């Protein structure tokens, strides 16, 4: 029984996540109080502090979970044998779809200098993805350089493309995806040498 989540805990987490997305779609999460969030979720502040520190925590939890789910879709396409360039385009489009689903949250956060956590979560996702990509795909042409620096360079590039898209109504989603893919490092879209002997 130790591996199961208490249904009451799961309901509380869902209530916080739903409430914070609703509120963060109306104003930056940095301006949401714990009291307001707890009231919207129908629980006490003490219950909130049992799990989180600030309203940003459950919001990032929601965003990261959705990004992880979409990354799983991209990984499935790897197993289907899509060419690397097409895979990058599909994976970038998945992230763009995620941003569209949470567009008010991202737009409001980018308008408030005090609210960098949402954009930071997006950068962290790209950083994690880039690190895993370099480790698992072993792309041909990957430079012999510090992988942390490479991952950060790639992460901020892709996140910056999304920021530009959100900040300019004249840029379409397809234009953003095509521009981001066009600027990706050449080694990202070359042949890959998948590691053997490891699952998933």
Write a compact overview of the structure shown:
The protein has 200 residues and is mostly helical. The protein contains 9 helices and no strands. 68% of the residues lie in helices and 0% in strands.
Q: Which structural traits does this protein have?
A:
single chain; 200 residues; Arc Repressor Mutant, subunit A; 9 helices
What does the secondary structure layout of this molecule look like, with pairings?
Elements: H1 7-24, H2 34-41, H3 45-49, H4 56-80, H5 84-101, H6 103-111, H7 117-137, H8 147-167, H9 173-183
The shape is: globular
Level-2 CATH architecture of the largest domain: Orthogonal Bundle
CATH C-level class of the largest domain: Mainly Alpha
Mean pLDDT: 89
Distance between the termini: 26 Å
Compute the gyration radius: what is it?
Answer: 19 Å
């Amino acid at each position: 029984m130790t591996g199961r989540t208490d249904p009451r805990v799961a309901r509380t987490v869902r209530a916080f996540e739903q409430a914070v997305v609703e509120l963060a779609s109306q104003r930056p999460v940095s301006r949401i109080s714990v009291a307001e969030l707890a009231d919207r979720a129908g629980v006490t502040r003490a219950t909130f502090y049992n799990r989180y520190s600030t309203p940003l925590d459950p919001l990032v939890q929601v965003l990261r979970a959705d990004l992880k789910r979409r990354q799983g879709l991209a990984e499935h396409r790897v197993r289907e044998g899509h060419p690397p360039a097409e895979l990058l385009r599909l994976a970038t489009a998945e992230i763009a779809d995620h941003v569209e689903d949470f567009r008010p949250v991202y737009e409001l956060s980018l308008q408030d200098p005090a609210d960098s956590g949402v954009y930071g979560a997006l950068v962290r996702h790209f950083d994690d993805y880039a690190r895993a990509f370099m480790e698992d795909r072993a792309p041909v042409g990957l430079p012999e350089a510090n992988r942390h620096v490479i991952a950060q360079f790639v992460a901020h590039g892709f996140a910056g493309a999304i920021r530009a898209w959100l900040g300019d109504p004249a840029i379409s989603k397809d234009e953003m995806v095509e521009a981001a893919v066009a600027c990706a490092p050449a080694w990202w879209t070359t042949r890959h040498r998948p590691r053997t002997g490891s699952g998933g």
